[in-house]
Specification:
Layout (H helix, E strand, L loop, with lengths): L1 H20 L10 E2 L12 E3 L5 E3 L8 E6 L7 H14 L9 E6 L6 H12 L7 H4 E4 L3 H11 L1 E2 L1 E3 L2 E3 L3 E5 L5 E6 L6 H12 L8 H7 E4 L4 E4 L1 H33 L1
Parallel strand pairs: 4-5, 5-6
Antiparallel strand pairs: 1-7, 2-3, 4-10, 8-9, 10-11, 12-13
Helix pairs in contact: 1-8
Length: 264
């Protein structure tokens, strides 16, 4: 009985993480974020900044870098996202240019450096301290470099007509170009979260986010174009946890009873 309980418990513990967090790698990538923590961006990604200068993104990294992927003519969440980022930058006590830098990169290959310059004037004025001139750069690029960068960081978009459907997320890179953190949101970012992500990136540390739990609890419904609560997965996990707790209790009580009998 004891051996059977231990075997069952082992199987439960082995299967639980797989049930909760595994992804089907054979499934096609859908719209959203596919975290690539500890992976590096490509060495030869070339984009053009708002001064019309071509920049090798990875070679230009000399400090932790916030990557904001948007498109400048977005009618939706891009403007609120950049407003929220600027607000968090303004409220944090780390210094732009000294402690970190920000790269805003358009994923629309039709947008130009002139448009990027206009957008920079708008958002740089929202930050009252730090070097916004040289340390908050606004980039555009061709379709090849855009595709490779999005793939490097696991950022999946979908074009519908002239517009894009895309996630609301900023990504933090280490000075070596390693992905260390994803911060989710489209209108507001906590200054503390921003600071901690920069500190971790400076040390080359990375960590998973709450997105892993959300991805487990919710599934994307292509028909309804929204995320729905996954009752089956959550219920199954609860049942497995209860079964594991029951087995632990049975084993503990059995050992306790055996000890008492041996003392008699």
């Amino acid at each position: 009985m004891k051996q059977l309980a231990l075997l069952t418990l082992a199987l439960v513990l082995i299967q639980f993480p797989t049930l909760c967090f595994s992804q089907d790698d054979s499934a096609p990538a859908e719209l959203g974020i596919y975290e690539k923590l500890d992976e590096f961006i490509s060495d030869d990604l070339i984009f053009t900044d708002e001064t019309f200068e071509e920049v090798n993104i990875k070679e230009s990294l000399d400090k932790p870098t916030i990557l904001a992927l948007v498109y400048y003519e977005c009618p939706g969440i891009c403007s609120p996202l950049l407003n929220g980022l600027a607000e968090a930058m303004d409220r944090t006590d780390i210094e732009l240019g000294k402690d970190y830098q920000v790269y805003t990169i358009s994923f629309s290959h039709t947008e130009t450096p002139a448009l990027a310059r206009q957008k920079k004037k708008t958002y740089a004025n929202l930050v009252s301290h730090g070097d916004t001139k040289d340390s908050w750069k606004f980039f555009t690029g061709d379709s090849t470099n855009i595709y490779r960068l999005l793939n490097d960081v696991g950022y999946k978009i979908k074009k519908e007509g002239k517009e894009y459907i895309h996630p609301g997320t900023i990504i933090v890179l280490s000075p070596e170009g390693k992905v260390t953190r994803y911060l989710y949101g489209s209108t507001y970012f906590l200054p503390f979260d921003l600071k901690m992500a920069i500190v971790e990136a400076a040390e080359g540390r990375s960590g998973p986010t709450i997105n892993k739990v959300l991805k487990f609890c919710f599934s994307y419904d292509p028909a309804g174009k929204k995320y729905v609560f996954n009752v089956t997965k959550v219920s199954g996990s609860i049942i497995l946890l209860l079964a594991a707790s029951l087995l632990f209790s049975m084993i503990f009580k059995g050992r306790k009873r055996k000890n008492k009998l041996s003392k008699v």
